[in-house]
Amino acid sequence: MFIAPLVAAGAEGKAANLASPSTYQIGPGDMLKISVWKEEDMQLDVLVTPDGGITFPLAGEVKASGLTTRELSNALVAKLKRYIPHPNVTVSVIRSVSNKVYVIGKVTRPGEFTATGYMDVLQALTMAGGVTPFANADDIKILRRTKSGSIVMEFDYDEVISGERLDMNIILKAGDTVVVP
Known about the structure:
Strand order of the largest sheet: 7-6-10-8-9
Shape: elongated
CATH superfamily of the largest domain: Outer membrane lipoprotein wza domain like
Number of helices: 4
Order of helices and strands: HEEEEHEEEHEEHE
CATH topology of the largest domain: Outer membrane lipoprotein wza fold like
Oligomer: single chain
Number of domains: 2
CATH class of the largest domain: Alpha Beta
């Protein structure tokens, strides 16, 4: 079963998605730099807790996991404007550790890999040292957990590298597992 691609297959669509850093979702373990303009005591490095939250002065506890930096900034502004007129909040990711993908099976170096940017299936396989000669490269699966359950996507290595099915070379999301039988 092949699930429709999550990213446009054309170069234009892919470039548009890659150029949009605001789509990165914050996750547990990420280190954020949060600053409020003209408030020297409110320029902090904040660690996202395992449950996905952060604590920030005057704002208290705020859910950060699953939000973009812009969404978190807006959430902090909403909480801070009770105390600071027109707060200008900047949120940036200074260390991303939550964006991990897993490659298991018949690859040279199976394991956990941190994507420092957008990572597609071929890039993940490359980080894992490539498929071994014993791999069934035309039956690779990508496993993704969602709120509504698990999704299994097919990946045919030979068709992708020959340029026939580039739509299978999807951008991986944090927590995805690439299984090479």
